[in-house]
Amino acid sequence: MSTVKLTVNGKAVSAEVEDRTLLVHLLRDHLNLTGTHIGCDTSQCGACVVHIDGRAVKSCTVLAGQASGSTVTTIEGIAKGDELHPMQAAFRDNHGLQCGYCTPGMIMSAIDIVHRHSGNLDEATVRHELEGNICRCTGYHNIVKAVLDAAGRMKVAQAAE
Amino acid sequence: MYQTTYHRPSSVDEAASLFTKGSDAKYLAGGHTLIPVMKQRLASPSDVIDLGKIAELIGIEPTGDGIIIKAATTHSDVASSETVQKAIPVLAYLASLIGDPAVRHRGTIGGSLANNDPAADYPAAVLALGATVKTNKRSIAADDFFKGLFSTALDDGEIITAVSFPVQDKAGYAKFNHPASRFALTGVFVAKTPAGDVRVAATGASQNGVMRVPAIEAALKANWSAGAIDGVRISADGLMSDIHGTSDYRANLIKVMAQRAVIAAG
């Protein structure tokens, strides 16, 4: 057992976990942040994507100990109170989800994509960049629309700040 | 996953010392091979020693005639590095083809080389560019480093600290990737040295992991052009045959990828 200390969604947290604990299990089972999903558990589907120190990673393939000392952001940490993050709002407005299972990972990956490309995105880039996130409902069409829509909204929001 | 003990040393020396104390220790870099293998219970190390946050193992530096990439540098940092893009752009391109964005945020060059997966990308670059693998004990030339499937010249407990890449006159990489895993079904890296020598390495093809391709090297040395490879015959003996492609198919892919790599190299 080890004590893992990290910042999750802006709050300092500490948990006593077995060394074999994966970050996704720390989040879901110890911190009750069940918005992060486990899909394939083999680092392929992307349902478990969270940000560690601002970078999108698959939390099913990171030990909790590896994240100790880091800042982790999950799907629960991106809205400002009742106001959805622009990416969440764009997914809702563009019908970017059906069953919703992949959505937390899609949104966390999509925010990372917009950040890395400074908002300068086209459809081909979004489709290519989403290759580590699998959705079995939507055919990706509306997800891609949502990411492009959100890229514009995030640019506007950034300019306003 | 079986029980294990996680360690996070702050220096290479401390990591090596922890390794000798564990009964069956393993080093962890990005963890994108070791953790899946531990989850499948195909590996059950007593101790996992995390090299991923050791400061002396992270970073990219230009040298007089090339670049040094430290071992725990992630694929995404190599892909987006201005130093790499300026000195050896094909290396940044190769890193951008590995896995997906989230995988590239974790996976490291040292981890990839130490694992020596027969379909990994970096081994082809290291072998074709004639790079040198630096460890905490010595320097190992690329031609002496790769020893077959998941096997390298590294001693038990030895740690890759950096890879030194020379700039070559021309260099190109082409990969026919598996659409789900993004591993190379076959990938070929071609390089022409300032002295006029040609080095060609294929990954994803041989049952013994990354390999030089002497027939294509000879053809390109005589005439550096995609057309020069037309008449080369690649034997399917010793090539992988699996659900994704037969050995004959891979033999042909070696030629086609080599031609595309030459075109990309210019």
UniProtKB/TrEMBL annotation, chain A:
The scientific name of the source species is Bradyrhizobium australiense
Q: Which UniProt keywords apply?
A: 2Fe-2S, Iron, Iron-sulfur, Metal-binding, Oxidoreductase
Q: Which domain of life is it from?
A: Bacteria
Entries under Pfam families matching the protein: Fer2, Fer2_2
**What is this protein called in UniProt?**
(2Fe-2S)-binding protein
**A molecular function (GO) term:** 2 iron, 2 sulfur cluster binding
Q: Where is the 2Fe-2S ferredoxin-type domain?
A: 2-78
TrEMBL record, chain B:
Per its UniProt entry, which superkingdom is the organism in? Bacteria
The UniProt entry's coiled-coil ranges are none
Q: Where is the FAD-binding PCMH-type domain?
A: 1-170
GO molecular function terms listed in the Swiss-Prot or TrEMBL record: FAD binding; oxidoreductase activity
Q: Which Pfam families match?
A: FAD_binding_5 (PF00941)
Listed A to Z, the keywords are: FAD, Flavoprotein, Oxidoreductase
Record's protein name: Xanthine dehydrogenase family protein subunit M
The organism is Bradyrhizobium australiense
